Amino acid sequence: MTGGQEAALPPRRLSTSEHGEGPYVWRFSRLDRALHLMVIVSFYALLVTGIPLLFAHSSWAQSAIRMLGGVETAGLIHRLGAILTFTYLFLHLGAVLLGAIRAPDRRSYFLGPNSMVPNAKDWQDLKQMFRYFRGKAEMPLFDRFSYMEKFEYWGVFWGVAIMGVSGLLMWFPEFFAQFLPGWGFNVATILHGREALLALGVIFTIHFYNVNLRPEKWPIDVVIFTGRATVEYMKEEHPLEYERLVAEGRLADRIAPPTPESSYRGWALLGFAALAIGMFLVLFVVVAALA
Amino acid sequence: MRPPIVVAALVVMMCQASVAWAQEDAAECEKCHEDRRFLTGKTETREQDQALFITRDMLLQSAHEELTCASCHDQHAGGYPHVTDSIASQCGDCHEAEQDDWVRSVHAENYSSTGDAADCVTCHSAHSVYSRDDDRSPTYDLNVAGLCAGCHADSTIVGTYFSAEKDSLAAASVALYHETVHGTHVTDAGLEVSATCADCHGPHRTLPADSLASTLHSDSIATTCGSCHEDVLALYAGAAHGTASNAGVGDEHDRDPPNCIDCHTAHGIVEAHEPNWFRHTVEECGECHERLYQTYLGTYHGKVTELGGELVAKCSDCHTAHDMRPATDSLSSVHASNVVATCATCHEDANESFADYYVHGDPMNRAEYPLLFWPWVIVTAYVVGALALFNVHTGMWLWRNMRQAIRQRREQLS
Fold first, then answer.
1. What does residue B309 show for φ and ψ, rounded to 5 degrees?
2. Predicted local distance difference test score (pLDDT) of residue B179
3. Helix or strand (DSSP H, E) at A4
4. Is residue A130 less than 8 Å (CB to CB) from chain B?
5. Where do the structural domains in chain A lie, given as residue ranges?
6. pLDDT at B342
7. How many C-beta atoms lie closer than 10 Å to residue A111's C-beta?
8. Which residues of chain B neighbour A48 with C-beta distances below 8 Å?
9. What is the pLDDT of residue A1?
10. For residue A131, which residues of chain B lie inside 8 Å, CB to CB?
11. What is the dihedral of CA A200, A205, A209, A213, to 10 degrees?
12. CA distance linking residue A27 with residue B74, whole number of Å
């Protein structure tokens, strides 16, 4: 790495993916970033319209729905959010299927270090992490995806499955009543509302802690939006992947141009806005639940 | 027996004499009352002077064309023919039933105590009296509201008679009436059949609603409204609320069953599709049916309703608006034999399984809804458990980071 490339790095960007020694390395593909954006948009569309419905009695909910343009509009936004959710689900499943078909080594596609499938190392990392929490070990070194990222990835699958099925039951009750007893819709309602709170809790206590609030990431990490991060970031967050790229001589293929200032600002703003709305929603749920 | 010719002749003569006398009497009155110059200054104000200007034509064109001055002003012999007491007893000579009613009204009561309540001439006028079918009459259907408003929208009168807390609704009633369905149908649509004041309050025996004899009393209000809304009355009277009302049955808190105005209000009556009112009726039902109201609010229907949704089912969408009956009644819209059809009014393809949905399901009521209670317990435990478990990870990490930060700070300081 030359000094010139280091100087090209903007000095004081907030995002940790922009910190330290360059050059930039691609981490996420265009599709990955688009899918994550779809997850954000649908998740927030569903939450801002669904959480007020769950706490309909609260005055917060009523003002929120008025601001959204009424409960019918909110209902429409919620259903559009559902459609977007199914869209990203099937886009991703399609991409995985296509990737599997094209993969030269199908076994390593599903079980290799670039896969989301949990493996023995993830279990070891988890145990080491708890020792790290107690100050008895170093933090484990992660490959392309840490066990936390895999956990959240499968969490989205789990959530989409539960919310998707229970949501469709409530969306088309006349159709599903051909196969289900009436109380099934009551249970679907309970499940949909409770699982929503779980999703809210996981995203705002675990995901945001992992990607925004912990000291290593504070105050924000926009790598999922810009798709690229500095070498220093890679060495710190995904050292095994970085070493593998270097060892296999593939780092050069992954070198990315620096993030343009204008797009960086937009993504950072989006990240902070998402964090702010999220905290607001958590506050809303706490206030409504206590009232 | 044929009457002797003398008697017959006498009768004829007396009649002629009385007509002649009457005409003479009227002519006598005209001398002064058709002479504006004479009347000027006879009273304190020009208006009062003007009120004394009474022509024979007024009478001839009125419904009282066959009467003469003396028909009402029979104290002529005793001096000035001017009535100081209520004219009601005079009018009652012919209009016996109306006088009888008025005497028992709140107007008569106030008239005798203060002298400034409505009597016959206040509403019918003194000389230009027209039939209520005549659009010149203040008592013509489309004029009644304005006539009553003359006093009931007058701040002095409202302040005197309706200042008590319990009368706050009465004080606002005229304005409210004009804004809502009966009033706008009169003023905007000119619909004669729309209810005006007298249709509900009774034109003569007008009494406050807490008076047993009032047309507005809770025992009578359904009949009063039903005099126009006949089909609604028939449904209401045959269904749960109407039969309980007729039987004089209250609930465990001794509350009377609802009648028309409990849901529709008295003066602020709006059309049934008006969303704010519709939402209000849900709360109104909930005043007595507390548990059903709470469980309704726990469901999708109730939550969307709370957020102002108009498309989802409200109480009356399933239970009907007037023909509500317990689910055990085979005529009920929610009886097992009818419930699928009731659901199908909104959910076209509803089947029996669909209708088995617990519309008032309460997951926390284990005894009645075990099928909801256990899933509720399990799902709640799963969510709370999962969040707690995952947050052990976040919490321990946070704890470690905080300890490290504190340690570094100490090292910097030392």
1. -70, 135
2. 87
3. helix A3-7
4. yes
5. 103-145
6. 96
7. 11
8. none
9. 41
10. none
11. 100
12. 111
Take residue B92 and report the two structure tokens written for it: 């009652």
Strand stretches in A152-283, DSSP E: 228-230, 255-256
C-alpha closest to that of A138 among B136, B213, B382, B400: B400
Please indicate whether, in this complex, the C-beta atoms of A202 and B390 are within 8 angstroms of each other. Answer: yes
Query: Terminal CA-to-CA distance of chain B, rounded, Å?
Result: 142
Helix (H) or strand (E) holding B120: helix B120-124
Q: Apex CA B313: angle with CA B284 and CA B236, to 5°?
A: 50
Helix (H, G, I), strand (E, B) or coil at A220: strand
Cross-chain CB nearest to B358 (options A66, A178, A182):
A182
CA–CA separation, B61 and B127 (whole Å)? 10
Q: Which residues of B396-410 are buried (b: 16+ CB within 10 A; e: fewer)?
A: ebbebbeeeeeeeee
Strand arrangement of the beta sheet that strand A24-26 belongs to: A228-230, A24-26, A255-256
B10 residue type, one letter: L
A147: Cα separation from own chain's centroid: 14
Q: Which structure tokens are listed for A24?
A: 């930039």
In the block, tokens 């025996």 appear at B205
B chain contacts of residue A75, beta-carbon cutoff 8 Å: 304, 309
Query: Which residue, among A175, A171, A128, has the nearest Cα to A148 in the 3D structure?
Result: A128
Mode of pairing for the β-strands spanning A24-26 and A255-256? antiparallel
Can you tell me whether residue A15 is helix, strand or coil?
strand
Alpha carbons A276 and A264: distance in angstroms, whole number: 18
Position of tokens 């070498």?
Answer: A231
End-to-end CA distance of chain A: 58
Residue pLDDT, tens place only, A187-207: 999 999 999 999 999 998 899
pLDDT of residue B18: 54
The number of residues in chain B equals 414
For the record, the structure tokens of A86 come out as 């199914």
Asked whether the beta carbons of B182 and B150 are under 8 A apart, the reply is no
Chain A window 218-237: which residues touch B at a Cβ cutoff of 8 Å? Answer: none
Domain ranges in chain B? 141-271
Q: Which residues from B are below 8 Å from A191, CB to CB? A: 375, 379
Question: Per the structure block, which two tokens stand in for B360?
Answer: 């008032």
Nearest to A50 by CA among A142, A155, A152, A170: A170
Give residue-wise pLDDT tens across range A114-140: 999 999 999 999 999 999 999 999 999
Residue segments in chain A with a per-residue pLDDT below the cut of 70: 1-11
pLDDT mean for each 10 residues of chain B (414 residues): 61 57 68 84 83 85 85 60 65 90 91 85 90 92 91 85 77 85 91 92 90 90 94 93 77 77 87 82 91 94 93 93 93 95 95 95 93 96 95 94 91 86
Please indicate if any CB of chain B lies within 8 Å of the CB of A283.
Answer: no
B311 and A191 within 8 Å at the Cβ level: the answer is: no
Closest Cβ opposite residue A72 in set B311, B379, B401: B311
